[in-house]
Every structure is written in C-alpha cells, then in structure tokens.
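Supplementary notes for students who missed Thursday's class. We covered one full example, reproduced here. Read the sequence, then the structure, then the short commentary at the end.
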Amino acid sequence: MLPYVYVDAVRRSGARAVLLPPGGDDEEARATVVSLDGLVVTGGPDIDPVRYGAARHQHTQAPATLRDAWDLAVTSHALRLGVPLLAICRGMQVLNVCRGGTLHQHLPDLVGHGRHDGPPNGFGLHQVRISPDSTLATILPEDGFIEVPTHHHQAVDLLGDGLKAVAWEEDGTIEAVEAGPTEFDGFSGFVLGVQWHPEQGTDPRLFTALAAAATERAAAERATAGSTVLAPMI
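Structure (token representation):
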C-alpha cells in the first residue's frame, strides 16, 4: 500500500506515476528501472538492520524482507543507470544503506526528544537547515531554517559512499543527502534524499526538480532514438 499523496505529488509536477510493487528479483528490478525516466523511493517501514550489519533495536520494526530487497535493488540500478532519483524518508535510508552506510535505529535514544516522530498517526513539523553549497539549496534557496513535515524515528548515521549530508535538523540529525565524493563508481544524474515528507506538504519544488531532471534525461535519450518526448514516467 502507498499513500496516494505520492501519486498526486508526481502528477502535479507534470510527470506520470508508475507504481512498482515489491517482490521481483534483481533482473526484474534492473529491467523496470531501465523503462523509467525517474524514480521516487518512498517512505515506509524500518529497514532490517542486518542489511547494514547491526543487531535489531527493541524499537525497530519487524523486517519487511521483500520490500527491503526490492527497494535496495531498484535504488542501486537507478544509481548505476543515471536515472534521476528522489528518496524520501525510508527511501533516503535505503539510498544510504545501498551505498554501505548505516542508520541510527531510534533517534530519541540519541537526541533525547521525539520531535522527529510527529503524532502517532500523522505528521509533525520541525526545522531543517540546508547547506548553501548544495544542489538542494538551488531547489530550496532558503536562508536559515525551513519548516518541513516529519514522521520518522530512524536516521542516517555513517554516510554511504558517494553521498554527502546537505541538511540538518536543529539537533544535528542529517535531514538530506545528495551525490558527493566517492571512492568507487560515481553517480551520473540527479540524486537527492530527504528525511522529511515533501509529499505531505504544499511545497512542490522537490518533485518539480525531479520531473525536470527526468524530462531532460528522457529528451536526450529519445532524441537519440528519434522519438517524441512525452511527460516523464516516475
């Protein structure tokens, strides 16, 4: 199940939404990503800590094995193929883990408050500061802190290879990552992860930026193939 606000946010950006149910093998993941112009990796349950070499914390949810495998596979293939990628909440954590990073499994243990959690069945608000020297700052060119919708109890700990932190909550929690220095294979294209939930707010700029990157990539590929560019598929 996927909250319909994700579909609405993609459509409002001018793209067409395609839903990708979990459960396929790695080859299906690769073939699926090849057919897309952009990818949104959405929020959802906690990632199984075995994926990043940790024991399960008492507050970490039971593993969703099929979804973990699928999300990690499609994210990895999107990075390899240069498919524009927007990773949201759990999606940002998937992005980090697939690059060898780790997670804080229960933020209240680390920061001493529950500001990130939001209400039990909804979303709260907190402030984030964006690095001025980042791609994210060109999309959200705000001075100081901005308010974002939030609902998470886990966050990035050790950054994965090829990623850099570009936004932080007031308590120092990493709230956004994007393509950065790498010791191995670099990324081509748009790569952005945010720990907050832009689909729950009224600011369309992150989805619009993804759609623009997807349109640019689709135009380049389809011009080479001699076909007409339509709305990008995300």
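Commentary. Residues 205-225 form the longest helix (21 residues). The first strand starts at residue 39 and ends at 41. If anything here is unclear, bring it to office hours.
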